[in-house]
Design goal:
Strand content: 15-25%
Order of helices and strands: EHEHEHEHHEHEE
Radius of gyration: 15 Å
Number of domains: 1
CATH class: Alpha Beta
Structural class: alpha/beta
Number of helices: 6
C-alpha cells in the first residue's frame, strides 16, 4: 500500500512518470491522474497524447492546469492520485503571476488534506548550468524550494535516473 504522499523526482525524460504510474497501478486502487500541463503548442499536445495513450482508459484524468486543490479535495480513499507534474504546476503559477510562496503553501496543505494516497512527480532542474535570464533563475530557485518542501512532507521519496528508480526516503511498497 502506498503511503499518504510519495514524491518522485528526476530529470526531464528520466522515466519518472512511468515509474510513478507503476506505483499507482500496483496500489490496486482506482487511478486518478491530475494533469497540470497546459497545452501551449503541438509538441506539448503530442506529449500529452502519448502519456494518455500509455496510461490507458482505466485512469480518470482530471484537468488541474488551473490548480490542483479541487482535484486533491475530490479524491476519495478508494483512489490513488498521480499529480504529474509539480514543475508544470509551478510554471502555471509563475506564468499567471501568482505569489509563489502563497500558492506553494496552499498546494502543500491540499496534499496533506487529501483522503487518497498521492504520488507527485517533479523535475530536478538545479543540476544544470545557471540560466542566463532572471525569469529562468527565479523559476529554478522556486522549483528547488518546492522540491525540498515536497521531499520534506513526503513519506517516501524516489529519485529516477535513466529509468532506474532509487529509494531516497521511506520504504518501498
Amino acid at each position: 500500500m502506498l503511503p499518504a504522499l510519495t514524491f518522485v523526482l528526476g530529470g526531464a525524460a528520466s522515466g519518472k512518470s512511468q515509474w510513478a504510474e507503476s506505483l499507482i497501478l500496483n496500489s490496486r486502487l482506482s487511478p486518478v491522474y491530475l494533469a497540470t500541463s497546459r497545452i501551449w503548442d503541438q509538441e506539448m499536445q503530442a506529449k500529452v497524447d502519448l502519456h494518455k495513450a500509455r496510461r490507458g482508459e482505466e485512469w480518470i484524468t482530471v484537468d488541474a492546469s488551473k490548480g490542483v486543490e479541487a482535484g486533491l479535495g475530490a479524491a476519495t480513499a478508494d483512489q490513488t492520485v498521480l499529480l504529474d507534474c509539480a514543475t508544470m504546476w509551478l510554471t502555471n503559477v509563475m506564468m499567471d503571476e501568482l505569489e509563489v510562496a502563497d500558492a506553494q503553501t496552499t498546494f502543500l496543505e491540499a496534499l496533506g488534506a487529501c483522503d487518497a494516497p498521492v504520488v507527485v512527480v517533479s523535475n530536478e532542474v538545479g543540476q544544470g548550468i545557471v540560466p542566463d535570464n532572471a525569469l529562468a533563475r527565479r523559476f529554478r530557485e522556486a522549483q528547488g524550494r518546492l522540491n525540498i518542501a515536497l521531499a520534506t512532507q513526503a513519506n517516501t521519496v524516489w529519485h529516477v535516473l535513466a529509468g532506474l528508480p532509487q529509494l531516497r526516503k521511506g520504504e518501498a511498497p
